[in-house]
Amino acid sequence: MDPQALIDDLQLEHQRLEERLAELDALGWLTPSEQVERKTCQKMKLAKKDRIAMLEKMTV
Q1: pTM assigned to the model
Q2: Mean pLDDT of successive 10-residue segments in the chain (60 residues)?
Q3: Would you list the domain boundaries of the chain?
Q4: Which of 10, 13, 49, 59 has its CA 20 to 30 A from that of 43?
Q5: How many CA atoms lie within 13 A of 37 on its CB side?
């Protein structure tokens, strides 16, 4: 896969995770499973951001 296409896909996934986090944050009070989902989304979002940064460094 083209590195730029991969970066674009990762950015889209990152945006979706950010939107889901906003939805969860808007709930105010989270159930235990929602708390786990929120934490998982945060970790996945950070991993995507790190991968994007790594790929961008490689394409320069």
Answers
A1: 0.89
A2: 93 98 97 98 98 92
A3: 3-59
A4: 59
A5: 14
